[in-house]
Each structure stands twice: as C-alpha cells, then as structure tokens.
Specification:
It is built from no helices and 11 strands. It is an all-beta fold. It is elongated, with a radius of gyration of 15 Å. It starts with a strand and ends with a strand. Strands 2, 4, 5, 6, 9, 10 and 11 form a 7-stranded mixed sheet that branches. It has a 4-stranded antiparallel sheet with strand order 1-3-8-7, with no helix packed on it. β5 (about 45-50) and β6 (about 55-60) form a beta hairpin. The chain has strands spanning about 1-5, 10, 15-25, 30-40, 45-50, 55-60, 65-70, 75-80, 90-100, 105-115, 115-120.
Length: about 120
C-alpha cells in the first residue's frame, strides 16, 4: 500500500492550495484518513481527519479555513486550504488506516503515511 501526497507549493498569505492524497495497492477498505503537518523544529500535529462516513475533525488552528474531504470510490483524500497564513508553512503528510490482503492472502489492517508535500506561505 502506498500513499502519494501532492499539491503543495509556494503561495502568498491569504491564498489557497488544494492537497491530494491517493492510496494505491492491495486495498480492501480505507478507514480513518487524516492530514498532519510538521513545521521546522516542531512536532508533527494533526490538521484534520475524516472517517469513512465523512465525519470530519479539525484542529483549532485551521477550523473555518481548511476543508477535508475524501472520495472512497477512488481511494483519495483532499485538503482545501483557504486564507493561508505564514504559520501554516510546514510539510504536510497524509495518513490512512488501510485494510487489505497481503501476498499470502492474510488480511491486515495497518496505518500508512504519505511522503509529505511542502507548503510554504509567504507573508
């Protein structure tokens, strides 16, 4: 199973970006998904999460500005980021709890991370 994050970049304060996270591999079901971020010198923190039934949760820092969503049919998750601030600058990682079958035909449920995408907001 692989998670591929994309959509990061450089944007001015007040601007918008949309991140995507595509899951691929031997996938039967994807349970909870989430976006995390890690700024230089800081710990990784949860930004937003979404359940399979699209119940969402946001950190106070992004509530009202970011929107998380998912497309279960295409195993993809999104993060629409509006009114970006300089303090949003970080590497953003996607995370997903994935169930599937390994090469031996044994069912597994495990937690996976994407490779990270850099978001830089200039003030």
């Amino acid at each position: 199973v692989q998670l591929q994050a994309s959509g990061g970049g450089l944007v001015q304060a007040g601007g918008s970006l949309r991140l995507s996270c595509a899951a691929s591999g031997s996938i039967h079901v994807i349970d909870d998904m989430g976006w995390y971020r890690q700024a230089p010198g800081k710990q990784r923190e949860l930004v937003a999460s979404v359940t399979r039934s699209s119940i969402t949760n946001y950190s106070d820092a992004v509530k009202g500005r970011f929107t998380i969503s998912r497309d279960n049919a295409n195993n993809t998750m999104y993060l629409q980021m509006n009114r970006l601030k300089s303090e949003d600058t970080a590497v953003y990682y996607c995370n997903a709890a994935v169930g599937g079958w390994d090469s031996r035909g044994i069912y597994f449920m495990d937690n996976y991370w994407g490779q990270g995408t850099q978001v830089t907001v200039s003030s």
